[in-house]
Amino acid sequence: MRNVPTVSVDRPPSTLGERIHLVPIIRGLGVTLRHFLRNLVGKRDVATIEYPERLRGRHILTTKEDGSLRCVACFMCETACPADCIYIVAEEDPNATVEWEKKPLVYEIDLLRCVFCGFCVDACPKEAIIMSREHEMAFAARPEAIVGIEQLRQKGPIEGEDLGYRPYY
Amino acid sequence: MTESRPVAEQLPLARLLPSDAKLAVAQGGDGHTVLTVDREHLLPVLRAFKERPELACDLLVDICGVDYPGREQRFEVVYHLASLERGHRFRVRVPLAEDSPTVPSAYEVWKAADWFEREAYDMFGIRFEGHPNLKRILTHEAFQGHPLRKDYDPARRWLLTDAETMVPEWAKETPGGDGQFETQVLNLGPSHPATHGTLRTVVRLDGEVITQAECEIGYLHRCFEKMAETHEWQQVIPYTDRLNYCSSMINGVGYALAVEKMLGITAPPRAQAVEVILSELSRIMDHCVCLGANLVDLGALTNFWYFFQPREEIYGLLEACAGGRLTVSYVRIGGLAHDVPEDFAARVRYLLEYIPKFLDDVDRLVTSNRIFRDRTEGVGVISAEDAVAWGWTGPCLRASGVPYDVRKAHPYLGYERYDFDVPVASTGDTYARYLVRMEEMRQSLRIVRQAVDMLPDGPVITDNHHVALPPKSKVYNEMEALIWHFKLIFEGIRVPPGDAYSFTEGANGELGYYIVADGGGKPYRIKVRPPCFAVFQAYPHMLVGHMIPDSIAILGSLNIIAGELDR
């Protein structure tokens, strides 16, 4: 604690002007009036907040050109997930070009358990799971929050999705 | 592991401590001197640590338990001691057998032992003889078992609804009163608009004056420490965001530094500079919330909006960097998850211009306002000696005149390179705590300005692939990198066996992580030393003699964040 540069913030007792409330009240009114006028005449063109490119929203399972999932059911995302919200059942891919290729039979994310940390995206070695910027999710019942392959897979070309957090090379 | 405390090494501990105590002295992996004492000699040793002028350990930082089921002496109580004047740190370990886990209470030596001992009792069942009020603190009183023991199943659930057990003994007595006023018992909270968090304070009132008070915490307890033991080292990071949720970045930085200390690595310079910038901006956010809420409770609503505008802008920056506003999860062990966006420096410079305007507005509205001064001056006064005895750190301690700041006393992340002052006040009242926080925000802006001016280029995460995931471009194309990637995900980081205490300056004071590793991919034990836990245990004692509206003013000025208080 020796030789620590300090700055004292102690304030002297109130002056007479402060004790009779007058000076602080005028000064305070000046501040609020300035804000009031600025909000009255300016700020007409207040824009909606732009969400950043990296926003971690609802997940997307990406697909290959033929429309099949890129996912090979390697269980890396399930292992890396700190919230244990991913559930995968693997099966053999019947359309595989090489022998013994896996694909997910079941791929479920419990969006109510998910903490949207992005660790699954970091863990994926195939860029098969990425995140979108979709963040408005409402469910009428808990089972609805468990989404499967059909809800998660990308809908059209990847450029058409509202892309959020993805791996950085 | 490079941090050395030569002062402590040169001390002739054997001569300074009671001669009949059987001591084993060692050097911890974190540079702190570690002593092992048997419980018969514990109290004399602790007294000597406090009273010997060569040792002068005036601050009891933390008390925690550790469970080693395989050992002959199953439990261990660890005392973390610090000397503010001399700057050295000690760790005193007391092994205890399973059949009689009792130690004498240190409450007589440091009042700070009060709640820390209760927590160790709650979590491990270690009994502290002579403790004035040894009850459960974080879990419900009807809870069975001790959750942090290794044989306690993490998946075990309890449904506890009985509210009767949580009434203090003195509140059950029929009130006497002196005939002039009627005394009554009143609950402040747990769900009260002025407590800003689920905290419960039971007070006895004589007329309008509080004559006795007791706090009950733990409503937000989710056993962070047990959850950490069931996750890999890297997976704990999202959980740290939820400790002090007003400045979540600082918690992650502190945790990563603790694990890096165990691993003996450091983050690259660019990552360190970004961590400093975002930590200091988070500190500003935290102070904005604290002061804004405190002023709302005192009837000054406008300031809340003026404080929340810069806070919103800072959240915008954090979101652009990390992808999340509050739950940033941006830090990784060994650096940052990914580099900051290209316009980072420009956005930080914009904030440097933007934030002071709002601070000036609040300054003009409040600082010399007589209504505010009358409400806060002389309210909740705590002397420097008392504050240290209760284990206070951070802005609340500095408001009592002790210039202790971890960033100055034990610099980390290169804080020694930045030029800033430590704000101190001498009165120790609610007004002083307001002034200290206002000045700290300006000092934080100074640090940010310097850090962004010398923001280095380069990588943001270590290239040690025992620790950090390889870049994706390598994972997709190289066998070696893919193997590292797989090993890190499935096995986790292998932290060498040992223990370390690492501490940083959180927004409320010293945020410490005591980490025990057994060489596996998961933490063996993580103990968080939350700064507001020590601050809040003095709160019921500060209330005595004040009125109810004062208790709200005091509570707001202490900045109790339930997320880190209850963990």
Overview of the molecule:
The complex is a heterodimer of chains A (169) and B (567). Helices cover 22% and strands 16% of the residues of chain A. With 169 residues, chain A is α+β, with helices and mostly antiparallel strands. Chain A folds into 2 domains: 15-46; 59-160, Alpha-Beta Plaits (2-Layer Sandwich), CATH 3.30.70.3270. Chain A is elongated and about 90 Å long. Chain B is of the alpha+beta class and 567 residues long. Chain B has 2 domains: 6-129, Beta Polymerase, domain 2 (2-Layer Sandwich); 230-534, Cytochrome-c3 Hydrogenase, chain B. The interface between A and B is large, with 50 and 65 residues.
Question: Which descriptors would you attach to this protein?
Answer:
heterodimer; A: 169 residues; alpha+beta; Alpha-Beta Plaits; 2 domains; three-stranded antiparallel β-sheet; two-stranded antiparallel sheet; 22% helix; elongated; B: 567 residues; Beta Polymerase, domain 2; Cytochrome-c3 Hydrogenase, chain B; five-stranded mixed β-sheet; 22 helices; 16 strands
Question: What's the gist of this structure?
Answer:
Chain A has 169 residues and is of the alpha+beta class.
CATH domain topology of the largest domain in chain B: Cytochrome-c3 Hydrogenase, chain B
In spatial order, strands of the major sheet of chain B run 1-2-5-4-3
Q: What is the fourth-level CATH superfamily of the largest domain in chain B? A: Cytochrome-c3 Hydrogenase, chain B
Alpha-carbon distance between the termini of chain A? 45 Å
Class by helix and strand content of chain B?
alpha+beta
Radius of gyration of chain B, CA atoms, in whole angstroms:
24 Å
Mean pLDDT of chain B: 86
Count all strands of chain A and give the number. 6
Give the overall shape of chain A.
elongated
Poorly predicted parts of chain A:
none
Major beta sheet summary of chain B: 5 strands, mixed
Q: Whole-number radius of gyration of chain A? A: 27 Å
CATH architecture of the largest domain in chain A: 2-Layer Sandwich
Structural class per helix/strand content of chain A? alpha+beta
According to CATH, what is the class of the largest domain in chain A? Alpha Beta
Name of the CATH first level of the largest domain in chain B: Mainly Alpha
Give the domain tally of chain B. 2
The percentage helix of chain B is: 40-55%
Helical stretch count of chain A? 5
